[in-house]
Design brief:
The protein is built from 4 helices and 10 strands, in the order αβαβββββββαβαβ. With about 160 residues, the protein is of the alpha/beta class.
């Protein structure tokens, strides 16, 4: 997407909101700037989110919430928690809950409930597959608490 915006000659700055301490976002940003920085037609501003207070952008209310994103440890057996957020967006009394890259967590359950649309990752087929992602059954159960939903990152 970042290169596409430059190809389309975007001029206004792009703000990327991310959880403070998320090294993945910072690493991707720095690698991208190193390769494409001189060609960019726009400025990228990293905006770390330090608290979970709602904020507004234009007429959209944004509510960040913590999710359970995990990465495999160096030993390949254990996992560790990585700073990650889901978001609930509200515009003109319509709401979208985006869970992001997460395993099962109560904060996603809470924010998906009664949303007009819930976008939920279902990256594992069953519990034995991984603790890094939600299984399809869990994601579907959470999705059904919203008015509508769809699953992303579904195993083939």
């Amino acid at each position: 997407m970042l290169t596409y915006l430059s190809v389309m000659r975007k001029k206004s700055a792009l703000n990327i909101f991310y959880p403070k301490g998320c090294k993945e976002i910072e690493s991707i940003y720095h690698a991208f700037i190193k390769v494409y920085g001189k060609e960019l037609s726009y400025q990228i501003n990293l905006k770390p989110i330090e608290n979970l207070k709602s904020f507004n952008r234009n007429s959209v209310s944004v509510k960040p919430f913590k999710v359970n994103h995990r990465e495999l440890s160096d030993d390949g057996k254990n996992s560790s928690l990585v700073p990650s957020l889901g978001f609930k967006f509200i515009y003109d009394s319509k709401s979208i809950c985006y869970g992001g890259d997460t395993a099962y967590c109560e904060s996603l359950v809470k924010h998906a409930k009664n949303s007009d649309l819930a976008i939920i990752e279902a990256g594992a087929e069953d519990e034995s597959t991984t603790d890094l992602h939600m299984i399809i059954l869990q994601a579907t159960e959470i999705g059904r608490t919203a008015r509508d939903y769809f699953l992303v990152h579904v195993p083939e």
